[in-house]
Amino acid sequence: MFFGFFFSKSKSMIDYVKDFRIVFFIVIIAIVTIVLGALTDKILRYFLYRKLNDKEYDATGFRFLKHLVITVIYILGFAFALIQIPEFKIIGHSFLAGAGVISLVAGLASQQALSNIVSGIFLVIFKPFKINDKITINNFVGTVEDINLRQVVLKDAENNRIIIPNSVISNQIIVNTNMHDTKCCKIIEIGIGYDSDLEKALEIMKDEIAKHPFFIDTRTKEAKSQKAPLVVARVVALADSSVNLKAWAWAKNSTDGFIMYCDLLQSIKKRFDEAKIDIPYQQRVVTIKQ
């Protein structure tokens, strides 16, 4: 009986030692994984910061790769932790050996998480936009700040962050103002009164656009040799209460274009007032019958 008790006690102690050993290794693996992930993130951020000093460098792929590497580190750490637990050893080996990857993918194929990851990979490969591009998606306008495994982060003009899942972007029409050509054309459309001097109004619009510091000349050498006008302004409609004029103003990018557009509305309005050119507003005549 004494030996039975002693044997039972020894067995319990061995089990406690084994459990302690398992917990100890899991804690060590967790600490190493977290430290390695943080260190990798810091190193990659340092190299990314150095690369961003080069304005021609496209950081899109590098940012996505950074997120991917850190994710893989945490997955491997999780797999090594599973190996330490006898009941989960087979699953852990499957993670490391890749034998369970196919079944894992099949099981998650319908899940949004996998869809976002696959969509993010396609976004990085085919590059409909890149970091610092100004894009429009679903009426949201902003500058691409980050692309990771799950989402794209946009920064709008009010400094808000717009978070859009990768899978949503893959199914949407994207307007990219920076793809291949950053030049921006702003259309200035103003209606003047029917009694106003039409030719004078067109000349004022052309003059104000041409002298704006952000305006750029987009004419080709051939167009210049043929004496094409620097600024094009035309009558585009005879509306109910106004003659509508339209002029096309080019800037080197959308930011300059927006500033130029706002400035031109103000300067053209002042010039119209000085030249007594009327900008009509809608009026309604009400007749009361008795």
UniProtKB/TrEMBL annotation:
<dbReference type="GO" id="GO:0005886">
    <property type="term" value="C:plasma membrane"/>
</dbReference>
<dbReference type="Pfam" id="PF00924">
    <property type="entry name" value="MS_channel_2nd"/>
</dbReference>
<keyword id="KW-0812">Transmembrane</keyword>
<dbReference type="InterPro" id="IPR011066">
    <property type="entry name" value="MscS_channel_C_sf"/>
</dbReference>
<keyword id="KW-1133">Transmembrane helix</keyword>
<dbReference type="InterPro" id="IPR006685">
    <property type="entry name" value="MscS_channel_2nd"/>
</dbReference>
<keyword id="KW-0472">Membrane</keyword>
<keyword id="KW-1003">Cell membrane</keyword>
<dbReference type="InterPro" id="IPR010920">
    <property type="entry name" value="LSM_dom_sf"/>
</dbReference>
<feature type="transmembrane region" description="Helical">
    <location>
        <begin position="95"/>
        <end position="126"/>
    </location>
</feature>
<dbReference type="Pfam" id="PF21082">
    <property type="entry name" value="MS_channel_3rd"/>
</dbReference>
<protein>
    <submittedName>
        <fullName>Mechanosensitive ion channel</fullName>
    </submittedName>
</protein>
<comment type="similarity">
    <text>Belongs to the MscS (TC 1.A.23) family.</text>
</comment>
<feature type="domain" description="Mechanosensitive ion channel MscS C-terminal">
    <location>
        <begin position="188"/>
        <end position="279"/>
    </location>
</feature>
<feature type="transmembrane region" description="Helical">
    <location>
        <begin position="20"/>
        <end position="44"/>
    </location>
</feature>
<feature type="transmembrane region" description="Helical">
    <location>
        <begin position="64"/>
        <end position="83"/>
    </location>
</feature>
<dbReference type="InterPro" id="IPR023408">
    <property type="entry name" value="MscS_beta-dom_sf"/>
</dbReference>
<feature type="domain" description="Mechanosensitive ion channel MscS">
    <location>
        <begin position="114"/>
        <end position="178"/>
    </location>
</feature>
<dbReference type="GO" id="GO:0008381">
    <property type="term" value="F:mechanosensitive monoatomic ion channel activity"/>
</dbReference>
<dbReference type="InterPro" id="IPR011014">
    <property type="entry name" value="MscS_channel_TM-2"/>
</dbReference>
<dbReference type="InterPro" id="IPR049278">
    <property type="entry name" value="MS_channel_C"/>
</dbReference>
<dbReference type="InterPro" id="IPR045275">
    <property type="entry name" value="MscS_archaea/bacteria_type"/>
</dbReference>
